[in-house]
UniProtKB/TrEMBL annotation:
Pfam families documented for this protein: Bac_DnaA, Hda_lid
Record-annotated Chromosomal replication initiator protein DnaA ATPAse domain positions: 35-170
Domain of life: Bacteria
Sequence ranges assigned to domain Hda lid in this UniProt record: 181-245
Name this polypeptide is given: DnaA regulatory inactivator Hda
GO process annotations (BP): DNA replication initiation; negative regulation of DNA-templated DNA replication initiation
Signal peptide: none
Coiled coil: none
């Protein structure tokens, strides 16, 4: 998956950025988790606003599936587009072949480079060499930002090239932590509202309690409900949700 956003850049890649991914609809949560997530949001806002500083040139997001890494990377690119700045989002899950490594060529010309799922390729020497070279080109340019994401911390990633691990350690690390169930209900309600659906708190709680706590799976369930609601012209009542999701 990939897309370029910017005032005068548009690259045809298989999938465009999701419309629902915005920095202002990311639910940070409460307590210490929420405070840490809000610091990350502020950091990404500064990047999108072109507030360049060496300590913000490289950023590393990590956490297991469903924590919001992809949402934030796509949202950052959307915000860059609003600011009239060029950016690119790539999920390296979609470019794992050695023949695909050329996708990294020329990325240094963008104001913001968002690379998702780097764990998919970092155990391959050819990809490590290419990522290391991209770091060096961005460093030489001295104006752009790289924001990378993976499912593990840098120290736990199976990186084939020690020099790449060294470069990644330049990045400011931010861990995405799991949200409590109450905040997951809020996420579902916000995304339902963006689709023109009304999801009550009670129905949202039922979905979260009866399905996986993984937000990717919850979003998949919401997509299924959206399609069924449009096809049958039904509201998201509890009986309808039970029927559609077979729960």
């Amino acid at each position: 998956m990939g897309a370029v956003m910017g005032s005068d850049h548009q690259l045809a890649l298989p999938v465009q950025l999701p419309d629902h991914a915005r920095l202002d609809n990311f639910v940070p949560g409460g307590g210490e988790i929420g405070e840490a997530h809000r610091l990350l949001l502020a950091h990404l806002e500064l990047i999108s606003a072109s507030a360049w500083a060496p300590e913000r040139q490289y950023t590393y997001l990590f956490g297991s599936s469903g924590r919001g890494k992809t949402h934030l990377l796509c949202a950052l690119c959307e915000r860059c587009a609003d600011q009239g700045r060029s950016s690119i989002y790539l999920s390296l899950n979609e470019f794992q072949s050695a023949n695909d490594v050329s996708v990294l060529q020329g990325l240094e010309r963008y104001d913001v480079i968002a690379l998702d799922d780097i764990q998919a390729v970092c155990d391959q020497s050819i990809w490590c060499d290419a990522l290391f070279a991209l770091f060096n080109r961005v460093q030489d340019a001295g104006t752009g930002f790289m924001v990378l994401a993976a499912d593990q911390s840098i120290t736990r990633l199976p990186i084939a090239l020690p020099d790449l691990r060294s470069r990644l350690q330049w990045a400011s690390p931010y861990q995405l932590r799991p949200l409590p169930d109450t905040d997951k209900v809020t996420v579902l309600q916000q995304h339902a509202q963006a689709r023109g659906l009304e999801l009550t708190e009670g129905v949202g709680e039922f979905i979260v309690q009866r399905l996986s706590r993984d937000l990717h799976e919850l979003m998949g369930a919401l997509e299924q409900l959206d399609q069924a609601s449009m096809a049958r012209q039904r509201r998201l009542t509890l009986p309808f949700v039970k029927q559609v999701l077979v729960i």
